[in-house]
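Escalated from tier 1: S-adenosylmethionine holo job.
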Amino acid sequence: MSDRSLNNKSIADERSVLNLDRVVFIGRSLSEYMWMFNLDLTSFKDLEILDCPSGASSFVAEASGEYNVKKAIGCDLMYDNDPSIIEKRGKDDLEYMIDRLSKVPDFYDWNIYSNIEELRRARASSLRKFISDYSKKGMVNNSSKKYERYVKAILPNLPFNDKSFDLVLSSNFLFYYHNMFDYTFHHDSILEMLRVTSKEVRIFPIQKPDAKIPEYFETLMESINKHMNKKISFRIEKVKYDFRNGVNKMLVLNRDE
Ligand SMILES: C[S@@+](CC[C@H](N)C(=O)[O-])C[C@H]1O[C@@H](n2cnc3c(N)ncnc32)[C@H](O)[C@@H]1O
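Tier 2 regenerated the structure:
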């Protein structure tokens, strides 16, 4: 864990950290994804990527648009709603998150965003880009093949065939909302992400809001490897995206076959 974890506060007490009472429908930008997942703009262009859950992130819109990746699809349990409903939920959740966060600013590192207003602007900009793309139903032509970029999915199930993607990205959901989803949910969701990728799954963060890795983490990795016939290797990488002090660890799972 980072030395800066929780600003060296002696109270590693979750009650003092941002505690949300629901999974918020907000989202980050493509450049924030590069930081969270240790990716770079050249290496991901030839990939078929699933962002899961994608929320109000502009990753898929930007990746399919200006960055022209081979394929980028986002899924989320909200994606069968009209754009107006999604937009309202995104705006409401952004204000809710900002309100909660403004009560505990010391638990954040204000280098990435210099203040709360800048954070709000960044999240609002991602929401706008996402809504604009989602409103067009996210249809693109890719080598004469049309596909929908925004697909409704409710984890731990995904409506995709085995090995449909090269890379599955999952941010700010698993592990972080540890108090809302149990071990079995994490186990089954990660197995499902591994099923739909041919190569790799990346999950950020693997820490709870207090920057601690859940106690069951090793058991979880062992069980997942067993279920995948011991054909999984994993590593933990420290990433540059360290906004919530010390919450900077990403899990990379590879299918060894
Ligand atoms: C905080 S957002 C993460 C968005 C994006 N990955 C990011 O890092 O900015 C979490 C998302 O999880 C979605 N969600 C919650 N439970 C889910 C489930 N069981 N299956 C699929 N999505 C779910 C919510 O709708 C929400 O959009």
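Residues 116-135 form the longest helix (20 residues).
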